[in-house]
Fold this protein.
Amino acid sequence: MNDKFLSHIEKKVLRGEEITFSEAEELYRIDDNNIMPILSSASAITRKYRKDIVNLCAITAARSGLCPEDCAFCAQSMRHHTGLSVYPLISEGEMLKKAEEAQKYSANRFCIVTSGRSVNEKELEVITRAIKKIKNKFPNLKVDASLGILKAPEIEKLKAAGLDRYNHNLETAESYFPRICTTHTYAERMSTIKLIKKAGIEICCGGIIGLGESNAQRIELAFTLAELDIDSLPLNFLNPVPGTSLKDIHPPSPFNILKTIALFRFIIPKKEIRICAGRQVNLRSIQPFIFMAGADAIIIGNYLTTKGSEPQDDLKMLDDLGLSRIRGHSL
């Protein structure tokens, strides 16, 4: 890549200007084996807009499996045979216990996640009561939720309970979405996101890299998220699960993952970028480079259907890198 071009793009972003789609395409054409310059530029952008403070979020699978949707990557779809543990919505007490565990992990955010298209009225009541109890017991812990497609009245109940942030991923670019899911539309996902924003709740919205999409479609997703002005961008990297439609797909290489994180940082310089599922299995020994590439947040502990790192290992990594973390506990 032309060093002058990279320097020009870095300075452009640092001035607060937006890059174009064609500029993003040129950035993404950098060879995966020669990515240090782009990581250095992404790091400079992160330091200016996000500082050296890492946000930690722990999640819990509050309801698992039996999802009627056909998302090609998902181990929780009832159309796939993955041997996943299946159970109904956990109790308020169990959610409170999981939140307490998140505190012990030093997480400053805790997210309640349910499988399925949405939640029913009874389930929503359980979740809203749990949110109130968690916020009362752990006032410094931000509480998030990911409950599928919602309507305005349901969102208002969550807001009244004190929900801080809602996660609703687009998963991939609109142009590629029909290849990944046919049981609901991109427009339905966008509708929920816009209703959440209208209600004044922060929105966490990202996707999964490595579903078979093109480079241009990854860029398309990034620009869509920038236009939505999301608050947090979770990036997952496919960890193919046996029994799913994408079981045989080859995940991105470690260097390609780092380059992709950097690309999203160039396009969305001021927002939180959280690295989620697929981090450990795909990046292995070079995980610390995610912070140079532009990440400033991670999921700590296990994911929904796959194992994560031991929390103390991630905390040690941050200490070794000299990165501060937002404290979620009240001690």
